[in-house]
Design goal:
Layout lengths: L11 H6 L1 H31 L2 H28 L2 H24 L5 H29 L5 H29 L2 H19 L15 H14 L1 H55 L8 H9 L4 H8 L3 H29 L5 H13 L1 H16 L1 H17 L5 H5 L3
Length: about 400
């Protein structure tokens, strides 16, 4: 990779026509399958069992192994070919989806069997996520990292709009089993695209236990002060955002404007995410962490709107603006991490970043109900919105974060 910071960026047609183009295609199909799976699996379980308890068990079975195995997945992705990890994980996920599809199509639903298969799917995700985050610098020049991540974000946000819609139609028309069968096919296509990525030359794995790689990854993570500061900030951002938005948002907005109102809010937010990810392909921020944190504060506005108003149209407008800010924050963080962290440690550092950031999410979701019952949903939402903006800006107190350049 060249390190010519001031060189002209690669034209988009060349960027998408090369090895990154195959990754972009595979990643887009992978994301489409994942976005469909989330909806199709939930609707299929409800369709087959009629039990919300069953659905809760299945969703937990998917999340737990991802958190438990994420660090191991990062170590593996730094030790072996990330391309190979992506091919194997997509084929494994396809097999799991295909088995679940057969079970549901033949009306042999069994909670224990489905939960076991979902456990495997969640475990596979723990290996694919660090590989996905670590492989991009192998495929593009450093000067193109921000544009590449913006392209990936644009496809991700597009399939987040279309994927659930397609899954819902499939479940309603042909059944949940056939929807999961379509998901399985998408993961096979993604694996096929990843086979077209040239394998990067990697040093042979050292003759040492894998736990040593985990310790080494932690040392690299901890040694980069700005990475630690940003990860702590993301953990707090998730604590003050995910629970309030997913629990209190629908409660307040649906109470005023019904389920359609909340659905509209989510759609408008997704449009904001997509619009900014497309725009970000054309812009370059020289101080990405500083600019990303400032833009990121906009994502706190929807929580304030939920608490101060609750009207669907007001929340939707702020959700659109918040989607713009969230996208800039996400793209700048990903690009900075990929350009500044040594490539041989990138997947492990990304895994520590993911794990420490994700841990706050279930705690946030569990806390919202009791807090809203005691203080009121609107008051909690306003408090979380203010706290969100504050923790977004706190990293700027560090000179390392303020002055880091691409």
């Amino acid at each position: 990779m060249t390190d010519a910071a001031n060189a002209s960026p690669t034209p988009l047609r060349h960027l998408l026509g090369g090895r990154f183009g195959w990754f972009y295609a595979g990643r887009t199909v992978d994301l489409a399958g994942s976005s469909m799976t989330t909806v199709a699996l939930a609707l299929a379980v409800l369709q087959a069992s009629g039990s919300a308890t069953d659905l809760g068990i299945v969703l937990a079975a998917n999340m737990i192994p991802t958190l438990v195995l994420l660090l191991l997945g990062g170590a593996v992705a730094d030790r072996v070919s990330r391309r190979a990890v992506l091919i194997v994980t997509n084929l494994t996920t396809a097999a799991v989806m295909a088995v679940m599809a057969v079970i549901l199509i033949t009306d042999r639903y069994d909670l224990f069997v489905i939960s076991g298969l979902v456990l495997v799917s969640g475990a596979v995700s723990a290996f694919s996520q660090p590989a996905l985050r670590g492989i991009v610098p192998e495929l593009v020049e450093r000067r193109d990292l921000q544009r590449a991540n913006a392209l990936l974000a644009s496809s991700q946000n597009a399939v987040r709009i279309l994927g659930p819609m397609i899954a819902s139609v499939l479940v309603a028309t042909v059944g949940g089993g056939w929807a999961l069968a379509a998901d399985a096919a998408s993961f096979v296509l993604a694996a096929a695209a990843f086979t077209r990525i040239p394998g990067a030359s990697r040093p042979p794995a050292a003759d040492r236990p894998l736990w040593h790689d985990l310790v080494e990854g932690w040392s690299v993570f901890r040694s980069m002060r700005w990475v630690v500061i940003m990860t702590v900030s993301f953990a707090l951002v998730n604590a003050f955002n995910v629970g309030p938005w997913n629990v209190l948002g629908p409660q307040v907005v649906s109470g005023k404007d019904g389920a359609v109102g909340w659905g509209t809010v989510q759609t408008v937010r997704a449009i904001g995410l997509l619009v900014m990810s497309v725009v970000a392909v054309k812009i370059v921020l020289r101080r990405p962490l500083r600019d990303g944190r400032i833009w990121g504060t906009l994502a706190g506005l929807p929580l304030l709107a939920v608490g101060l108003s609750g009207e669907a149209w007001i929340v939707a407008v702020t959700a659109f603006v918040g989607g713009l800010g969230f996208t800039v924050a996400a793209i700048t963080w990903e690009s900075t991490l990929q350009s500044a962290v040594p490539e041989e440690s990138l997947s492990r550092v990304a895994a520590y970043d993911d794990l420490l950031s994700y841990l706050a999410i279930p705690l946030s979701q569990l806390a919202m109900g009791p807090l809203a019952a005691h203080y009121g949903a609107k008051s909690v939402s306003v408090a979380c919105g203010i706290a969100f903006i504050v923790v977004c800006l706190l990293p700027l107190l560090s000179r390392d974060v303020r002055e880091l350049r691409t």
